[in-house]
Specification:
Chain A is of the alpha/beta class. Chain A has helices spanning 35-44, 79-87, 119-129, 134-148, 163-175, 193-208, 220-226, 244-266, 419-427, and strands at 2-6, 16-26, 52-63, 68-72, 94-100, 103-105, 181-185, 212-216, 229-234, 237-242, 274-275, 280-288, 297-299, 304-317, 320-327, 332-334, 347-358, 366-375, 382-395. The N and C termini of chain A lie far apart (80 Å). Classes of the chains: A alpha/beta, B mainly alpha.
C-alpha cells in the first residue's frame, strides 16, 4: 500500500490515480475495543473469526485534470468509501493511491466551525483547516463574507446562526480555498434557490479555471447535465466508465432489471392485492413498445401499448376495462378506462386482449406502477382488480422538462399584452 | 536497494514536515481558540493563570512550611513555585493532550489535515499559559531576593526541552486513547504517582542517598533523575532560578537527548497509527 499526496497539480499527470485499490473494514464489535477483552482473549487463546467486508475491491481509476466525474451507484456501493480515500480520511488497505492537488470536500460543510467564535473568526479557523495561510485568508475574507450573504451577522458567534447561514458560510469558505479537486455529494442543497444558483455559477467558474470535480448523486439528470464523465460503482467495483449518457443508461437498465426481478418475487404476496368476483379475469398485463416487444422501461415520448389479456369462462356482458398509473411516490397520475373512451365491448367470452395505446408517453423520468381492473357496466360489481400489478421505469427522452411527473407538451412564447388591456381586464 | 529505501524515508519525513508547515495557521488557530475557550465566562479571565500557582504555592507552604517543619527548605515558597510551575505545565499538557484527538473526532472523521496538529496545538496552548505564569515567578524571585544565575539565558532552552518531551508523551498517549479509552483512567493514577515521585514539593536531598532493596544498595537520589526526565527538568529549573547555579552540562545534554528520543518515538508511533483514526473514532 502506498499513498502519495502532493499539494499541487503535476502537469501531465492525472490528479487522482487509484491502482488496484481495495479497502476492507472489520465489522466492528463493541467489546473488541476494550483492553480487558483483549486480555481475556489473549489468555484464553480464543480468537473470534474476523469478519471483514470490502466496500471497495481492486478499483483502478485515473481522473485527469478538468474531469467532471459523476459517480453513480446504489446505497452501499462504496461511493463514500471512495470519497473518504480521496480526501485522506482513511487509507486504502491495499493498492496505490496518488492525489495531486488540493482536495476540498463539500460533503461536510462547516465541519470544524467553533460555535463560540464569530463568523469572521471561523472563516480563519476553517480556512486553516483547509491548509490556507493567514495571508491567503486575509486576501479572500471579504469575498467570502460577500458570497455567504451574512451581512452584519458575520461578527456574531456562529452558534446563533440558522442552519442555512451555517451551510452558506461553510460553502463560501470551501469554494474560496481555490481547491484543485472538489468533492460534491448529491445536489448542492445549500440555502434557498438563489443561493443554489450562485453555488452552481461558482462551480461553472471552477470548471473554467480547469478544476476537477467529483460528484456523487442518485439523480442521473444532475450527473448528465454537470459531468463530462461518469462511473457506475456497485459492490465495490467499477461496472462502467465513460460518457455520462451511456453509463447512465446502463445503470438505469440494470436498476430496472433488478426492480423487475423484485416484482416477480413480490408475486407471492399478490393475493392480498387482488380482489373481485372473478367472472372475467385479467391474467396478464403487458407493457409493449411500438414494435410490440414487452419491456419494463420506456423513454419519455415513446409509444406505449398496454395489453390486458383476459379470460372469461362464461360470457360477460359489457364489462369496463380500466387502468391506473401511480408514481412511485403514490401520486395517482392517470386512470383511463374503456367507458370514458366510449368503447363498448359487448359480450366477452374465452380469451382475448384489450389494448390501451399511448401515442407519446407524457410521463417524466421515474418509476411508475400499473393497476388494472374490470368492472361491470354499472360499476357495481368488480370482476377483477389487480393493484400495482407491475412496475415500469420511464427514462429521459424527447421532453426537456425536468420537474414534476408529466410533460404537458405546451410551448412558451413572448406575448404582447399591453398594460392598458390588463387594466381593462381588471375593471371588468 | 537499501539506499532507495533510506531516501524515500527521508523524502517521506520532509514531505510530512512541509505538510505540517502548511498547516501552521491551523495550529495557531487551535491554540488561540483553546486559550479563548479556557477563560470564557470567568470573571477574572487569564488572571487565573497567575492566581492558580499562587494559590497552590500557598497551600504547599502551609502544609510543608508550617505543619511539617521537618522538611523545611530555605525560602520554601520560592522553592515550591520553581518546581510547581514546570510540573503544572507538564501535567496540564498531558491532561489536555490526552483528549486532543478524541475530542476533535468530528473534525478527524470529516476533514483531512495532518493529525499531529491536534496534540501539538494542545501542548503549545499549555506552553503559553506556562509563560504567562512565569510573570508571577519573576515577581516572586524579586520579592524573595533570589540570586539570579548568570546562566539564566539558558532558560528558553530548558523550556524548549520540556515542550519537546511533553509533546512526545502526548503524541503517544493521545494515540493510545483513540484505541483504548482506558488510557485516560490509567494516566490519571500514573500522574498522581509521578507527582509524588518527582521532587516538586520536597527536596531530593530529603531522600536517603541509598536504599536497600533485597540486599542491594540502590543509589536512590541518582535513580530519581535517571528514570524521571521531569525530575531532571525541575532540577535544572531550580538550578537556574532557585540555587542560582549553573547546571552541569552533561546533565543538561542527557536530559535534552532523553526528551528528543521520547519525542522521536512518540512522533513515529503517532504517524504509524494516526491513519486509522478516521475509522476508529
Amino acid at each position: 500500500m502506498t499513498v502519495v499526496r502532493r499539494p499541487a497539480v503535476e502537469p501531465g499527470q492525472p490528479v487522482i490515480e487509484l491502482h488496484d485499490v481495495s479497502r476492507s473494514f472489520r465489522k466492528h464489535r463493541d467489546f473488541e475495543r476494550s483492553l480487558q477483552q483483549r486480555l481475556v482473549r489473549a489468555l484464553t487463546r480464543r480468537r473470534p473469526p474476523i469478519d471483514v467486508f470490502f466496500p471497495l475491491k481492486d478499483v483502478s481509476l485515473r481522473i485527469e485534470t478538468g474531469d467532471f466525474l459523476g459517480i453513480l451507484g446504489p446505497n452501499g456501493a462504496g461511493k463514500s468509501t471512495l470519497l473518504k480515500l480521496i480526501t485522506g480520511i482513511i487509507p486504502p488497505t491495499t493498492g496505490d493511491l496518488t492525489v495531486n492537488g488540493r482536495v476540498c470536500s463539500l460533503l461536510e460543510l462547516g465541519a470544524g466551525f467553533h460555535p463560540d467564535l464569530t463568523g469572521r473568526e471561523n472563516i480563519y479557523l476553517n480556512g486553516s483547516i483547509y491548509g490556507m495561510s493567514r495571508r491567503a485568508i486575509d486576501k479572500r475574507v471579504e469575498r467570502i463574507i460577500d458570497f455567504a450573504e451574512l451581512g452584519d451577522f458575520i461578527d456574531t458567534p456562529v452558534k446563533h446562526y440558522s442552519s442555512g447561514m451555517y451551510v452558506r458560510l461553510g460553502f463560501s469558505v470551501a469554494i474560496h480555498t481555490d481547491p484543485d479537486i472538489l468533492l460534491v455529494d448529491e445536489v448542492l442543497a445549500v440555502g434557498d434557490v438563489n443561493f443554489q444558483q450562485k453555488c452552481l455559477r461558482s462551480i461553472e467558474l471552477f470548471r473554467n479555471r480547469g478544476g476537477t470535480l467529483i460528484l456523487v448523486s442518485h439523480d442521473l439528470s444532475t450527473i448528465q447535465s454537470v459531468c463530462t464523465r461518469a462511473i457506475w460503482l456497485e459492490d465495490g467495483r467499477i461496472h462502467a466508465d465513460g460518457d455520462p449518457l451511456n453509463v447512465g443508461m446502463a445503470y438505469l437498465e440494470s436498476m430496472a432489471q433488478r426492480e423487475h426481478e423484485h416484482t416477480q418475487v413480490d408475486a407471492a404476496n399478490e393475493a392480498s392485492r387482488r380482489w373481485g368476483t372473478g367472472r372475467i379475469r385479467i391474467h396478464t398485463a403487458e407493457l409493449c413498445s411500438a414494435d410490440g416487444q414487452p419491456r419494463d422501461y420506456f423513454h419519455n415520448g415513446e409509444t406505449l401499448h398496454i395489453r390486458l389479456h383476459y379470460h372469461a369462462d362464461h360470457a360477460v356482458s359489457g364489462p369496463i376495462f380500466g387502468i391506473a398509473i401511480h408514481h412511485q411516490n403514490g401520486a395517482h397520475v392517470a386512470g383511463p378506462n374503456t367507458d370514458f373512451d366510449g368503447l363498448v365491448l359487448g359480450d366477452l367470452q374465452g380469451d382475448g386482449c384489450v389494448e390501451y395505446i399511448v401515442p407519446a408517453l407524457p410521463l417524466l423520468e421515474g418509476v411508475y406502477s400499473l393497476t388494472v381492473a374490470i368492472v361491470d357496466a354499472t360499476n357495481t360489481e368488480t370482476y377483477d382488480y389487480r393493484d400495482r400489478l407491475s412496475q415500469f421505469r420511464v427514462l429521459r427522452g424527447a421532453a426537456t422538462d425536468r420537474y414534476g411527473l408529466v410533460a404537458l407538451g405546451g410551448h412558451w412564447q413572448l406575448s404582447k399584452i399591453n398594460t392598458t388591456s390588463r387594466e381593462a381586464m381588471f375593471q371588468e | 536497494m537499501s539506499v532507495t529505501i533510506e531516501q524515500s524515508r527521508l523524502a517521506r519525513i520532509t514531505a510530512r514536515g512541509s505538510d505540517l508547515w502548511r498547516y501552521r495557521e491551523l495550529i495557531r488557530n487551535l491554540v488561540m481558540s483553546s486559550l479563548k475557550g479556557r477563560y470564557k465566562n470567568s470573571a477574572l479571565g487569564f488572571v487565573w493563570s497567575l492566581l492558580n500557582p499562587l494559590g497552590m504555592m500557598l497551600v504547599f507552604t502551609i502544609v510543608f512550611g508550617f505543619l511539617m517543619p521537618d522538611v523545611r527548605v530555605e525560602k520554601y515558597p520560592l522553592f515550591v513555585l520553581t518546581g510547581l510551575l514546570p510540573w503544572n505545565f507538564f501535567s496540564a499538557s498531558i491532561n489536555a493532550g490526552l483528549y486532543s484527538v478524541v475530542g476533535s473526532s468530528n473534525l478527524v472523521k470529516k476533514v483531512y489535515f495532518p493529525r499531529e496538529v491536534l496534540p501539538i496545538a494542545s501542548v503549545l496552548s499549555q506552553l503559553i499559559n506556562f509563560l504567562l505564569a512565569f510573570a508571577v515567578l519573576f515577581v516572586a524571585l524579586i520579592v524573595f531576593q533570589a540570586s539570579f544565575s548568570p546562566w539564566l539565558w539558558t532558560l528558553p532552552f530548558v523550556i524548549l526541552i520540556q515542550t519537546v518531551f511533553s509533546t512526545g508523551v502526548v503524541l503517544i498517549l493521545s494515540t493510545l486513547n483513540v484505541f483504548y479509552r482506558d488510557t485516560a483512567m490509567i494516566t490519571e493514577v500514573v500522574m498522581l504517582a509521578w507527582f509524588f515521585l518527582t521532587p516538586v514539593v520536597y527536596s531530593v536531598a530529603l531522600l536517603p542517598e541509598t536504599i536497600q532493596v533485597l540486599g542491594v544498595a540502590l543509589p536512590l537520589q541518582r535513580l530519581v533523575y535517571i528514570f524521571n526526565p521531569v525530575a531532571s527538568l525541575i532540577a535544572i529549573y531550580r538550578d537556574l532560578l532557585y540555587w542560582g547555579y549553573r547546571t552541569d552540562v552533561d546533565f543538561f545534554i542527557r536530559t535534552a537527548l532523553t526528551a528528543l528520543a521520547v519525542f522521536a518515538f512518540g512522533y513515529w508511533f503517532f504517524l504509524r497509527y494516526s491513519e486509522r483514526f478516521g475509522e476508529e473514532l
